[in-house]
Amino acid sequence: MCGIIGCNGVEGAASAITQGLERLEYRGYDSAGIAIIDNKKIRYEKKKGRISVLIKALKTQSDFVGSIGIGHTRWATHGKPSDENAHPHISGKFAVVHNGIIENYRQLKEKYLKLVSLKSDTDTEIIVQLLNRLYSGNCLETLSNTAKLLEGSFAIAVLCEDEPDTLYCVRKSSPLLIGVGNGVYAASDLSAINDRIHTLYRMNDGEIAVISKTEAEFYTFDKKKIVKNPEEFEKAESNCGKENYEHYMLKEIYEQPAAVQKTVDAYLENNKFRLDFELNKPERIYIVACGSAYHAGLAGKRIFEELLKIPVIVQVASEFRYSNPLINENTPTIIISQSGETADSLAALREAKSRGAKTLSIVNVRHSSIAAESDYVLLTRAGQETAVATTKAYSAQLAALYMLGIYFAEKFGTADSKTTEKLKSQLETLHTAILSALDCEMQIKELAQQLQSAEHIYFIGRGLGYAAACEGSLKLKEISYIHCEAYAAGEMKHGTISLIEKGTNVIAADTEPKLSPKLQSNIDEVVARGARVTAITSQGKIKADSVIKTPAVNELFAVSTQIVPLQLLSYHIARLRGCDIDKPRNLAKSVTVE
Ligand code: F6R
């Protein structure tokens, strides 16, 4: 949420910054801006709209030459998207870009900036106004004094005209990486600078970076110098573009077999796990996540309970963190997150740790905060995911959960070896079933034609089918803007069935054969009230208006194949409706605010 970038000692800083912003655009795309120092003067441009609008505006100007600068792509928190509210914010000799939320901005305004008339409605402007107000002639000292006043989360990059050869960065609870290459860079995530750097540092909370043209020094908020070791990192994959696909989302849907195969291969070889988590059989397990990752957790619960025979509590992170969760050192907590930066999930991880729980994260981004702070990490290998709506990372999360379920079942001795051996060999070939599931695209395109004008669509399922229904519903609503709801099929008759009338569309996910007769009854109940039902199933038994067949897999893994037609359906409906598929309105990929 919001992407920031900065660089120093880089010839043509403006173009390095706009290129980086294009790669960070998935973090927020309602406005963008840039500031550079040229001849000891700050020059800036900021525009409502996509990065392309900013780039167009920059082309009309000749004075954006300089080797130091900062840039920002915004997801509005305080103040609507507008030129004025876009970053950078400027005051006196300072320019600031910020990712996060300053929670005490009203109090700070009241206490320190009573007489200042603000130019924007943002919390960020308070930072730059404070820097200007508290400026002692020493930037590091001023930044340290300002940072100590700020409450909330912030990753900040700062320019000061008095120090035209130094870039400053500050971090508390919002991600920030520093890279050294031909020049020195700062960015919200590695993808923005990966191909420009050879050395990477991860800033931790409470740190200030002082960046010259060739190196970075790190300090605490009390100005004590920190010695920091570089992090290992992998150079960017070459296949980060859209290739021949019309949208990243479609490309990423098609990358799912590879994402699952790579994730499984990384930890399972010749039916043996390469996992080493020191855990004894606990009384219960928590799984905590947001959005699609939470939906992966719903499937994880069902699988863990089946294989481990212990209760598993799945909670959305924003609820968990304030719910006084019943965990202690004997309650391992699994955090699932593609980005590894989701603010609520990170806070949940910290909450679990503070209660003594061992934490295990399933993350896709190696250098993320959640990965860095967890006791154990299972890294999914989905590669960079660019479309805001997750597909391949979600599938890789499911694969990770299957592995963990089987691994713990072996470790705790809660399932017989015949069962776990069979599951492991089926898991090693799951990617081929996902590949076959993609064959349904032609049929899905026809279905999308029929459903494109629907106002409401209901998704139902039982057991793991309910987990698939939740994810299918979220996928469709977030990119097509059709109102969708997911229900445990048997729960419809307790209220929601009153919304079913002639022509209402219902999609049913049939995953577990033992539950199919029950699901069929629920389908019949909505059909009796006029609903038009599409069933996704790997068996031939379900009767519905349309049936989408998915390849037969072990029922515990069926979400992985059934989600494929649901993702494709969302994609094709959104495409027919002319929606901005990769960047749906109001959303951002990495949700780094509460
Ligand atoms: C939906 C989607 C979101 C994320 C959620 C958590 O398509 O992508 O619901 O799943 O914001 O994000 P991560 O996994 O990065 O913690």
Explain this structure.
The chain has 594 residues and is α/β, with parallel strands linked by helices. The protein folds into three domains: 3-226, Aminohydrolase, N-terminal nucleophile (Ntn) domain (Glutamine Phosphoribosylpyrophosphate, subunit 1, domain 1, 4-Layer Sandwich); 248-428, Glucose-6-phosphate isomerase like protein, domain 1 (Rossmann fold); 435-594, Rossmann fold (3-Layer(aba) Sandwich). The chain is built from 18 helices and 26 strands. The strands form five sheets. It has a seven-stranded antiparallel sheet with strand order 3-2-4-1-10-9-11, covered by helices on one side. A seven-stranded antiparallel sheet has the order 5-6-7-8-12-13-14. A five-stranded parallel sheet has the order 18-17-19-20-21, sandwiched between helices. Helix 4 (124-134) crosses helix 5 (139-149) and helix 14 (430-437) packs parallel to helix 18. The longest helix is centred in the last third of the chain and has 21 residues, at 392-412. Fructose -6-phosphate binds at residues 290-293, 337-339, 342, 345, 389-390, 474, 478, 590-591. Residues 290-293, 337-339, 342, 345, 389-390, 474, 478, 590-591 line the site of fructose -6-phosphate.
